[in-house]
Amino acid sequence: MKALAILPGFIPVNQIKKAAAQILPELEITIDASFEKSDADVLIVTTFTKVDAGLLNRMPNLKFIQVASTGYDNVDLDEVKRRGIMLSNIPVANKEAVAEHVIMFALVLLRNFVQLNSQIRAGQWPVLTGARELRGKVFGIIGMGAIGTKLVERLIPFEVGILYNDVRKLPQDKEEFYGIKYVELDDLMRLSDIISIHVPLTDKTRRMISERQLSLMKDGAILINTSRAEVIDEKALIKAVKEKGIRVGIDVYEKEPPDFKSELFSLDNVVFSPHIAGATVESQERFLMETIANVLRYKQGLEPQYRVV
């Protein structure tokens, strides 16, 4: 077996080479995807590398792709299927990090933290803040996969009511165990004080949060997106922030860096982070270990975990 990893330049490549040397000595690591040809049968990538027909044509022996990420919308699934190539992702390594990031967004927005920090830095001393508590709020989760489930676990001590929507309804015993309730998407948008999105980007989820869904939200409610930017209609979101006072936490963008000329970046009720919700030291270590372990499973002739195709 020969494996090739294409990694972005900001990742500590030497550290990864050292970690993989003993168990995957055949692993070649590059930060450049412009090579002419590779005879590797295993490809490891992050979401920063586009896996399309152009790349696949230069890897004629490829049989298995491992995406070291939860998302895999950088991969042309139709092309991978057509060529009979297996594909796996790592959907669990960053669930703790994303869940904590979502709760951070919710608390920052509930407590008006960004505005208060700016006022104090400007020499002002606000007395009444209008801050709200998380306890007692209705928290809506769109997408109850590994991250959505971990978010539920982290929210339980805050004593919130939890609604969820997903393409699959959980078994009743699991709903009762977590104390959560399934509702249709429109009802979730209408009833929730805080909404967090955790769905993959597909043809069905693209722009699933449109002007109609946003119009159902409570005035001043909070919307948090750590999944993919394309899930929300940005123009409709800007309108909802301006007209309904929706408060928003955003970690993902259609292109990165984003277009900072967008009106979104001039709105006071929106808080941003640079696509780092799942990027902690601990989560990156887990991604590395899970990726290596899954490639080893393939090498040993076992079915890879988290297989997508």
Write the layout of secondary structure elements.
Layout: E1 3-6, H1 13-21, E2 27-30, E3 42-45, H2 53-57, E4 64-67, H3 77-82, E5 86-88, H4 95-110, H5 113-121, E6 138-142, H6 146-155, E7 161-165, H7 172-178, E8 180-182, H8 185-191, E9 194-197, H9 211-216, E10 222-225, H10 234-244, E11 247-250, E12 270-272, H11 281-299
Helix pairs in contact: 4-6
Give a description of the structure:
It contains eleven helices and twelve strands. It has 309 residues and is of the alpha/beta class. Helix 4 crosses helix 6. The mean pLDDT is 94. Keywords: NAD, Oxidoreductase.
Structural class: alpha/beta
**How would you name the CATH homologous superfamily of the largest domain?**
NAD(P)-binding Rossmann-like Domain
User: Mean pLDDT, as a whole number?
Assistant: 94
Strand order of the largest sheet: 8-7-6-9-10-11-12
* CATH class type of the largest domain: Alpha Beta
Task: Assign a percent range to the helix content.
Answer: 25-40%
Please count the beta strands (DSSP E, at least 2 residues each): 12
Number of separate domains: 2
- Reading the helices and strands in chain order gives EHEEHEHEHHEHEHEHEHEHEEH
Low-confidence stretches: none
Which radius of gyration do the C-alpha atoms yield? 21 Å
The share of residues in extended strands comes to: 15-25%
What would the CATH topology of the largest domain be? Rossmann fold
What's the overall geometry? globular
Terminal CA distance reads 20 Å
| Biggest sheet character | 7 strands, parallel
**So how many helices?**
11
**CATH architectural name of the largest domain:** 3-Layer(aba) Sandwich
GO molecular function, one term: glyoxylate reductase (NADPH) activity
Protein name: 2-hydroxyacid dehydrogenase
Keywords: NAD, Oxidoreductase
Family: Belongs to the D-isomer specific 2-hydroxyacid dehydrogenase family.
